[in-house]
Amino acid sequence: MCHRLQLDRSTVRRFARASSIDELLVKAVNRSTILDEYRPYLHRRWNEGCHDTAQLHRDIGALGFTGSIQAVRRYLRTFTPSVPAPAPRPAPRPRRVVRWIMTNPGNLTDEDALTLKEIRAGCPELDAVTDHVRDFAEMMRDLRGDQLPDWMERVEQDPLPALHSLVNGLRRDQDAVIAGLSIPWSSGQVEGQNTRVKLIKRTGYGRANFDLLRKRILHRT
Fold first, then answer.
1. CA gap 13, 120 in Å, rounded
2. Average per-residue pLDDT in the chain?
3. What are the residue ranges spanned by the domains of the chain?
4. Are the CB atoms for 145 and 181 separated by under 8 Å?
5. Given pLDDT bands bounded at 50, 70 and 90, which one contains residue 26?
6. pTM flag (> 0.90)
7. What angle is formed at CA 194 by the lines to CA 189 and CA 195, rounded to 5 degrees?
8. pLDDT at 171 over 70
């Protein structure tokens, strides 16, 4: 009997949302800095034609900024003098970033894809997580369980403890996982029937006996 391990989108999502990954997401996209409140001012002054980092640092220093000129320089280094600086965008919530990672890249809007690209560029760990999650999704979609050993080796080469824990769990039942990622059959129908029976049982709780429960289940089959 071939045991299939259920590995669907929700399984990958649970590992993608593990505590260490959430902390990584918060660090990458939701981190506040002392420069945040001065960004609109910097954008306005840049668009007015002031591209002198030292002058801009002095300007926001007069407004209360206590950080170094290096922080301002790092923030402005992607700006182009001949192109107006874009208005600062609010950082997306971690769960939204998780949804972008879990979505087929071809189904993302141009804006979401660009934002995710910027986030990945600023966080190598999250960039690696995104690649691994999408590779795993491709294995499930294309039924390529033979690629699992190589995928696990690639994961172990990156410093990602949450995914290492996943790999350790997969190794304990690797043959079943490979089978589950390779064959076209699943226990989805069985799990669906179990859920249906539980729902029927709960709707009659305290109001009917086993005989009626049996008839209701058979009537809807």
1. 18
2. 81
3. 9-29+91-180, 190-219
4. yes
5. very low
6. no
7. 95
8. yes
